[in-house]
Each structure stands twice: as structure tokens, then as C-alpha cells.
Amino acid sequence: MEPFRTHTGLAVPLDRDDVDTDQIIPKQFLKRIERTGYGDFLFYDWRYLSPGQPRPDFVLNNPRYRGASVLIAGRNFGCGSSREHAAWALADYGIRVVIASTFADIFRNNAGKNGLLAVALKPEEVVEITKRSQTKEGYRLTVSLEDLTVKDNADFQAKFQIEPFTRYCLLEGLDDIGLTLRHQPQIDAYEKARQARNWLPAVR
Fold first, then answer.
1. Which tens digit of pLDDT belongs to each residue from 101-153?
2. Three-state DSSP class for 58?
3. Which of 132, 167, 177, 179, by CA, is between 20 and 30 Å from 109?
4. Does residue 50 lie within any of the structural domains?
């Protein structure tokens, strides 16, 4: 997983509350077995009128937000089902940070395990940067996981909090597999000892 320390990116405002995981990545696209390729289907029912026909009034289809990597949403982002595919779809599309006033707990956990930073700001702070991203073309935000700050290139600055273990894993670029592999020497020693006292042949 790519370490997350500081990211500066174009901000896109998804000015909606209660964005659920079935809207982030609809259920018909959950058949894939890889973590990649989901970005094309992100917010599919909102992005397209029909297959191949973008909905012109949806924010991600606005050319001014092309290449955005910071998504600003309302409260209770990521509610609904526990599908990890929601985090995969956002990351595959190119989103590195989601800012909202509150998040569903399971989505927040899934995001951290996939290198996606979920930042909870005060409701009035979310309203302010949403308004700025709507009115200022090319509006960019800098999010620092080291300093726990969100800033723009003008006068906006806000602090946020994050669970320490999630912060550590994001800073170090560690998903669950990476955390396990940090104990590789101990795992190897255990396996050798187990095989030595087990009459069954080692699996190769």
C-alpha cells in the first residue's frame, strides 16, 4: 500500500448526505475478483443516464473537476452495506482523500486498509470548503496526515483527528498483509518448529 503523508489535489464537491455504498459502487459490479477496474463504475447510477452516456449534471462529469483526488461529501458518508469495494472504487478512480462531517464506521475502517484517508471535519468547515470548491475553479486542498491538517492556498485551515493505529498504518503504507509480513522471521521460526514436531510431511 502506498504510504500516505501529505497530499495536495483538486477538490470535487459531492454535496450530498448519506451517500451509501450501493451508490458508491452498485451491486452489479461486485463480481470482479481483483481490486482494480472499479473506478469506471464509481457512482455509476449517478454518473450515467445509460451505458456510455454520461449524465451532464453530475459533478464528476464536469470537466473542471477532471483529475480530482479529494472528494468532499456531506454527513454519514459510506453508510449501507459493508462492501470493501466502495473503498476500492474510490481509490481506483484516483481519490486519495474523502472529507465529510461523519463517516460510517465500516467504511472508515475499509478506507484506511486501502490507503484512502477519511477525514472528518466540523460541519461548518465542510460547508465552507464545499462552497469554495463550487465557486473557485481549480480549488485545491492539502491534507497532511503528519500534521493532521487540511489547508487550501488561501486562508482555510482545519485540524482533524484519526485513530492512532489507522494513522500509523497509512503513514507506513501497511495493509493487513503488510502488518503480518512485519513478523516474517517469527512466522518462519514457528513453521520450522511446527514441522519438526509434526509427523506429517511439510506442504510444498
1. 999 999 999 999 999 999 999 999 999 999 999 999 999 999 999 999 999 99
2. coil
3. 132
4. yes
